[in-house]
Amino acid sequence: MLHLFCVRGRQVAMKAAQSGILAFKKVAAMEWDDGISLDELLARVNRVAAKLLPAEEGGDSRVSPTFVPRTFRHYVTLGCIDAGRRDGRHVFYDYRHFLQALLLRRLLSERVPARRMPEIIAGRSNEETERMLLGGVEIVARPGARPVPAEPTIGGGAAVWKRIGVAPGVELHLRENLSKPKPSALKELLVRLESALRGNF
After folding, report:
1. Contact indicator for 28, 41 with CB cutoff of 8 Å
2. Exposure string (b/e) for 98-131, b if CB count within 10 Å is 16 or more?
3. Is 61 helix (H, G, I), strand (E, B) or coil?
4. Is 145 exposed, middle or buried (0-12, 13-18, 19+ CB in 10 A)?
5. Whole-angstrom Cα distance, residue 65 to residue 53?
6. Residues 155/139/50/48 CA torsion (nearest 10 deg)
């Protein structure tokens, strides 16, 4: 049976401690306009990831406690993270790189294969990437996967998921309090959904 799920990190987005959300907002509000060095970018990413994406026991071995320059550059080469802005011998990074690196770490913790990363991360607006990072919709297909139970929210309540039967053997799960996407985002979502379905049939 094929189930379609919102990629939200194995309860990571909904379990993220309030301190993780606050850390994210604090770093997001920092100065980004002139760009920052790779070392500063990774310091910011690691600071937020430590709180927003707590390490899980038995988690994926690809997810180290910190993001290092070599790993970051590897994912730039794969097309998961945009290349920095070059100015002479210096390369600068901005808020977009911060979001992409955090989302990548979240997907790694979810054991999403590296070959899927570019199609999930690349080419998205900052708003869309932020929404995905903090619990937005991203459809992926998992043959034979089981439905995920309702998750706790930051406030301790249970998230409510709407299950929509699309066709025999195909089910779509949407968080009930999900905001309605803009027409352009919906169109892109439908294209990705079609792509996910074609890849699994």
Report:
1. no
2. bbbbbbbbbbbbbebeeeebeebbeebeeebbbb
3. coil
4. middle
5. 10
6. -80
Q: Which two tokens stand for residue 80?
A: 């998961």
Question: Can you tell me the distance from the alpha carbon of 183 to that of 164, in angstroms, rounded to the nearest whole number?
Answer: 20
Q: What are the angstrom distances between the C-alpha of 182 and each of 29, 121, 157, 177, 195?
A: 25, 19, 28, 15, 20
Q: How crowded is residue 158: how many other Cβ atoms within 10 Å of its Cβ? A: 11
Determine how many CB atoms are found less than 10 A away from the CB of residue 6: 19
Q: What is the mean pLDDT of residues 180-189?
A: 81
Q: How far is CA 44 from the centre of its chain?
A: 17
CA angle 174, 187, 16 (to 5 degrees): 35
Cα(5)–Cα(100) distance, integer angstroms: 20
pTM for this prediction: 0.60
**Average pLDDT rounded to a whole number, residues 181-198:** 80
Q: Which residues sit opposite 150 in a β-bridge?
A: none
- The residue assigned the tokens 């997907």 is 107
Amino acid identity of residue 94, one-letter, is D
